[in-house]
Amino acid sequence: MTAPRVSFLDIAQTLAAYLALPVALLYPFGFVALFAQFTNYFRLDFYTAWYAASLVNRVIVLGQGAAILAAALIGSVLLCGIVAQMFLWHDYSGVSSRFVHGRRLGAKLAFVFVLTLLLYVSYTRLVIAGRIFGPVIFGSKPTECQEEALRHQLNLWPDSLVPAFIFAAGGLWGGWLMYGAYRRYRQSVSVNEGLGPVVDHRLRGTLRLLVRGITQGWILPGLMAAYAFGIAASLMFAWYTPAFTPLLTYGDTPEHQGTQEPSHNRLLSHADGSWHFLHRKKIEGEREYRVVSLADGEAKFVRVRPHRETAFRVAPFPWSKDAVTRVTEPCK
Predict the structure, then answer these.
(1) Which of 87, 127, 203, 258 has its CA 20 to 30 A from that of 284?
(2) Helix or strand or coil: residue 202?
(3) CA 56, CA 244: separation in Å to the nearest integer?
(4) CA distance 140 to 320
(5) Cα angle 224, 228, 234; round to 5
């Protein structure tokens, strides 16, 4: 008995099942991600953060959702499929000793867990920088005092590792659920099919297993676990992500003329004939951001500038010579 071929209809059903939820969640998640960043990074209260997120351009919101969520959800499903495939292969590996069997499987699962952590941490650093080049992975030497550097840069702990642990743990658990659901499915049809050879049990590949899971209807528990942990990891990542929005200057000021550093106004959007931005004020040494809207007639000489160089958005690793705690002094 060999595994049946995968038809075009099977592939279409699989793509619809796996992509429908990520696509539907892009805008809602992007909105919630911005809300989390405005709350944590700018310290806005609930209602102000919600209003500020509602002012952001829809394309930007979709891009935020796609960058943080889409890849995580697709990766979580693939990770669950790989883990489930590992359990299935070990079921029919022919190893008689349970101790040897368990140790081999445990070693492989540990390797997959560590590799997933490394890949997810690298993914978070690439997302923050917005491009792929050397300093993104290893980070750049901070140029600010310690508290400001920790706030403005993506750090290994907790910014990257906490969501990475959630993502990896969800992949292992979801894979176990997929494996258990497939075993129960095989047991339910074994009366009609007989025991037969074991080729079909292993399904000859992770992608084939994911396709069969949809067409045979047994993959739902693992799929829901994968999506749940992927969303949870993405939300945690969004919470820790520094809010890098473009800077905005307006009026005939030294800032606009280039003789002074740009202000810390953060652009939200330009819509309905108005500029919407967050204006920073220092009150008794503490920063406070307020939502400001200016009509086109009120805002003269508006200029939008990039926030800062992408290389400085990623903090060096704690064990490197340029670690934030080694090369910076506490802020005064």
Answers:
(1) 258
(2) helix
(3) 13
(4) 10
(5) 145
Burial of 48 (0-12, 13-18, 19+ CB in 10 A): middle
What is the DSSP track for 70-137?
Answer: IHHHHHHHHHHHHHHHHHHHHHTS----HHHHHHHHHHHHHHHHHHHHHHHHHHHHHHHHTS-SHHHH
**Can you give the residue ranges of every domain in the chain?**
76-240, 247-307
Angle between helices 71-91 and 98-129 (to 10 degrees): 170
DSSP tag of 260? S
With 0-12 CB in 10 A as exposed, 13-18 as middle and 19+ as buried, what is 181?
buried
What is the structure's pLDDT at 27? 92
The amino acid sitting at 323 is A
Question: Strand pairing partners for 7?
Answer: none
Edge-to-edge strand list for the sheet holding 303-305: 286-295, 274-283, 266-271, 247-249, 303-305
**55 exposed, middle or buried (CB, 10 Å; 0-12, 13-18, 19+)?**
middle
Structure confidence by residue, pLDDT tens digits, 29-87: 999 999 999 999 998 999 999 999 999 989 989 988 888 888 888 899 899 999 998 88
d(Cα 222, Cα 235) in Å, to the nearest integer? Answer: 20
pTM of the model: 0.84
